[in-house]
Amino acid sequence: YLKLRSLQRKSYTHYFYEATVGAGLPIISTLRGLLETGDHILRIEGIFSGTLSYLFNSFVGTRSFSEVVAEAKEAGYTEPDPRDDLSGTDVARKVIILARESGLKLELSDLPVRSLVPEPLKACASAEEFMKQLPQFDEELAKQRQEAEDAGEVLRYVGVVDAINKEGRVELRRYKKDHPFAQLSGSDNIIAFTTKRYKEQPLIVRGPGAGAQVTAGGIFSDILRLASYLGAPS
Amino acid sequence: YLKLRSLQRKSYTHYFYEATVGAGLPIISTLRGLLETGDHILRIEGIFSGTLSYLFNSFVGTRSFSEVVAEAKEAGYTEPDPRDDLSGTDVARKVIILARESGLKLELSDLPVRSLVPEPLKACASAEEFMKQLPQFDEELAKQRQEAEDAGEVLRYVGVVDAINKEGRVELRRYKKDHPFAQLSGSDNIIAFTTKRYKEQPLIVRGPGAGAQVTAGGIFSDILRLASYLGAPS
């Protein structure tokens, strides 16, 4: 990857990939802007999966986790096999993209990823079988939610780039109820950049981070940027 | 203004002004990106003044508005004469910038602006005199806050570009306590773009919108963009 980027720069070609994180949300361009102007990233923390955002925003009251997953699957918010979302791989990929952009040398295999697929269910032959067995494992997450609630907190499934310790991870974290991550609704993504400049209060971008229209917008925006770099009027 | 922009485009020169709204926050670039890729702005709504953000985030409990203003003045969060912040002119300027960028033909004189400077105090000779007299006018805002509170809402001082009705305004609005604007802290700016693409859930940018470092970052970012447009490697 680093070789590719170094060749790209030497050959005066361009390389854009805004829509790889948060679809049309201005994530990569914001990060590049900060870095190019001399800011230093301390931490990037975000809810990068619309599906997992929705699941934890809805995991409230007396509902069990498997119930929320079933409902989301029904509504088409998850992949046909919800294990594709619950494994955390998609979030891990986004953490790697942001970590590399921030200058860290990380590979997918370096990341500790909290999978929400119970170990015994990884081998289930079908999504149906998985959904049927999932309720048996509700207890652990219910317990974690209760512990969080007792402390005035909520659970959120986040990706973290820790630029100080040069590491990344995907985990289930607890946030105070007045934290911006605690107040999400729907399937919004949210990304917080804590930098030398934005240290006391992070720079936050929030909004729908998936869907055909907004993803196309992100890609189109890159193409127009390319056109401008190649001399188109602004 | 329109003539200037048309000349600029015809002459293949560039015109950037990211830091005019929200300092280093990606506001103008985000808006331009949406428009250039064919999205349609329906509404832009935001808290554009760090000072007024701080004042209303702190206007809670049993505190009077004049007390909060005095404290903010003491801490250096307001202009030497707080009337410069409370008049709303600064917010109105930002609404005009965003409205014009969105294609509306608006002038500052077209905007209804809610001034928080009581009419009789506009003529006060000095900031000291103004601060001394301000407590007499606490009652009205206290009443508005109480009404909002009784409805589970908070007061926020916002600028609005209403692209559907082709108008803008600066006003004191009430927001439900789970609205992103209600949960601000410190002197953060927050801007929500509701567009054809981001209709159900807006695209939101939040963070410190003033200060030497972040403003310089916004300007520097424009300069680098200019360099790229003129052929620098990316």
UniProtKB/TrEMBL annotation, chains A, B:
Q: Which UniProt keywords apply?
A: Amino-acid biosynthesis, Methionine biosynthesis, NADP, Oxidoreductase, Threonine biosynthesis
Indicate whether Plastid appears among the record's keywords.
no
EC number in record? 1.1.1.3
Q: Where's the Homoserine dehydrogenase catalytic domain?
A: 26-224
What Pfam families does the entry give? Homoserine_dh (PF00742)
PANTHER family the UniProt entry points to:
HOMOSERINE DEHYDROGENASE, PTHR43070
Q: Which organism is it from?
A: Citrus sinensis
Cofactors per UniProt? a metal cation
Give the family from UniProt: Belongs to the homoserine dehydrogenase family.
GO molecular function terms listed in the Swiss-Prot or TrEMBL record:
homoserine dehydrogenase activity
The protein depicted here goes by the name Homoserine dehydrogenase
User: Could you tell me the superkingdom of the organism this chain comes from?
Assistant: Eukaryota
Specify the enzyme's EC class, one word.
oxidoreductase
Cross-referenced InterPro entries: Bifunc_Aspkin/hSer_DH, HDH_cat, HDH_CS
Keyword NADP listed? The answer is yes
Q: Which biological pathway?
A: Amino-acid biosynthesis; L-methionine biosynthesis via de novo pathway; L-homoserine from L-aspartate: step 3/3; Amino-acid biosynthesis; L-threonine biosynthesis; L-threonine from L-aspartate: step 3/5
